[in-house]
Amino acid sequence: LEYVKRIDSRLYKIEEFKHGNQIIMQQKPLNDEFVSLFPMKEPSEITNVDLRLENSPEFEKQFTMFMKTIGGVKEKYFVKRVLSRLFTNKLAMNCSWCGLQGNFGLQKMKLFSLMNGVCKTIFNDCTDSLFEEFVKEWFKHGKQRYFRENKNNNVTSN
């Protein structure tokens, strides 16, 4: 049985390497203050995080490491997993890539250029266009996820 577990562990590592998701060893664990910033609930929190990314190389390193540890098997799943950790569905309802129709615009945010960079590092064939498409799609369905989430919460609380 131990032999099978070792083989299973090795296969898992090979699969991760094959998909570009090398195991990431953190140099320093993420601090509580950093972790408490996510998921973001208000547009002002997005602006705050983006300013910190612009002004603090240490915060940028932590943010990059945070995204790398989330991982994903393919580009689409990486983007979905990271965005679901960064944004609440309620906030996602009021955001869009270009900021049209009174939504909070995300296109020029540093956090998305960093996320795109991490995605390209993990998945060599990821393009800007593909990354944007996945981000836009995730935010497009924010309202639907929010209402489904609330519907499920109401059902379980009754």
Features:
single chain; 158 residues; mainly alpha; 9 helices; 67% helix
Short structural summary:
A two-stranded parallel ribbon has the order 1-2.
Could you characterize the architecture of this molecule?
Pfam families: DUF4806. InterPro entries: DUF4806 (IPR032071). This is DUF4806 domain-containing protein. Residues 38-110 form the DUF4806 domain. This protein has 9 helices and 2 strands. The chain has one domain (41-157). The protein has a two-stranded parallel sheet with strand order 1-2. The chain is an all-alpha fold.
**What's the number of extended β-strand segments?**
2
What count of structural domains?
1
- Stretches where pLDDT falls below 50 for ≥5 residues? 21-26
- Summed over residues and divided by their number, the pLDDT gives a mean of 87
Fraction in beta strands: under 5%
Given the structure, what is the number of helices? 9
Largest sheet composition: 2 strands, parallel
Tertiary shape: globular
Please specify the SSE layout and strand pairing.
Layout: H1 2-18, H2 32-35, H3 43-55, H4 57-70, H5 75-86, H6 89-92, E1 95-96, E2 104-105, H7 110-122, H8 128-140, H9 142-157
Helix pairs in contact: 3-4, 4-7, 5-8
